[in-house]
Amino acid sequence: MSNFLHTFVVAIGAGLVLLPLPLSPVSSLVRTQKQETGAAARTEPPLTVDATQRSDASLVSVNVLVTDDDGRVLPGLKPCNFRILDNGRPQKLVDFAPASAPITIVVLMEYSAASYSYFAGRSADWGAAFLRHLESRDWVALTTFDLQPKVQVDFTHKQDEVRDAIAWLGPPRFQEVNLYDALADTLEKLNGVRGRKSILLLATGLDTFSATTLEEMYGKLRQTDVTIFSIGLAEAEYTRYGSGVSYLQSKNSLATFAKMTGGLALFPRFQGEMPTIFRSVVGYLRSEYTLTFRPPPELRDGRYHRLQMEIVGPDGKPLTVTDEKGNNHKIDVFTRQGYTAQLNKPQ
Asked: What distance in Å separates the CA atoms of residue 291 and residue 92, rounded to the nearest whole number?
């Protein structure tokens, strides 16, 4: 784990918050989360919606997490603090919201007989442990994969149901690990799900012989608004015994999946890191802002657009933050790298 990611995980896990200027003392993210919990939660599952319920397809929504360079989350930002550039062109926000909705997440677990089912056991342990960090209002689904993906539990508030499903998985049946097919299938199923959604991917990063190629996988990620959190299962073993080219390539794939979608890729070496890592994932999701803009007709070209997010002060200059000791900090922004624009068909 890089020094920054370690600091980021510890900071979010500890619930620290650094407020933007004007100066305010450091306060507790946990307190903010408890206040938000009182908001009305969805009572219906986040299932696929029909065409009449879909929002304007020309709108682009982007989830953004803003921290200082010590990994502390910046709450209280306003729409005027965000400048979003679409292929270098500033865009006007049409909607803005801090995180308040329940988390909607798929736990996508590698569960294969490869390596004598060693990593399958770890995946099951970590998947069950993650559930303890969710709230009763959150939505969670469970999908496992080996030769093919299988939805074990559809979206539910009942985390015990998911935990029981993990406990009753039984021995893995196949040695294949078709990661790209499983991820592509999960993204497809999430296409029509309402609101902000994410995937917790527990995997070695290895892929046996998916029909989906890695380049095709990247293409699908350019079109999704799902945030991926990649948790590597095999870092401890490859650190201890030496990592080959295949593992380095697999690790790079997991990191790229997260980076393209604005998530995190974490590669723990020790079991003791997991509670802090899972707190960081949940804290990340509860601390995001959602920004929505409508590209002008000339930008609706069906192509992939690069996004750039700038955090600015009221004067339009880059925002700086100062901690309780008077030290200045730079700002880091976590968001997806871009999106595939809707094709504006001629009238």
From this structure: 10
- In the chain, alpha helices (H): 3-14, 29-37, 118-130, 159-167, 179-190, 214-221, 235-241, 245-261, 274-285
Q: How far apart are CA 221 and CA 227, in angstroms?
A: 9
Distances, alpha carbon 258 to alpha carbons 89, 138, 222, 229, in Å: 25, 21, 12, 6
The DSSP code sequence of 181-206 is HHHHHHHHHHTTB-S--EEEEEE---
Q: 306, exposed or middle or buried, with CB in 10 Å at 0-12, 13-18, 19+?
A: exposed
Please name the residues in contact with 216: beta carbons below 8 A apart, sequence gap of 6 or more: 180, 184
The full set of domains in the chain, from first to last, is: 53-98+290-340 (no CATH), 104-285 (3.40.50.410)
* pLDDT tens digits, 268-327: 999 999 999 999 999 999 999 999 999 999 999 999 999 999 999 988 899 888 888 888
Q: Rounded to an integer, what distance in angstroms lies between the CA atom of residue 207 and that of residue 214? A: 9
Per-residue model confidence (pLDDT) at position 244: 66
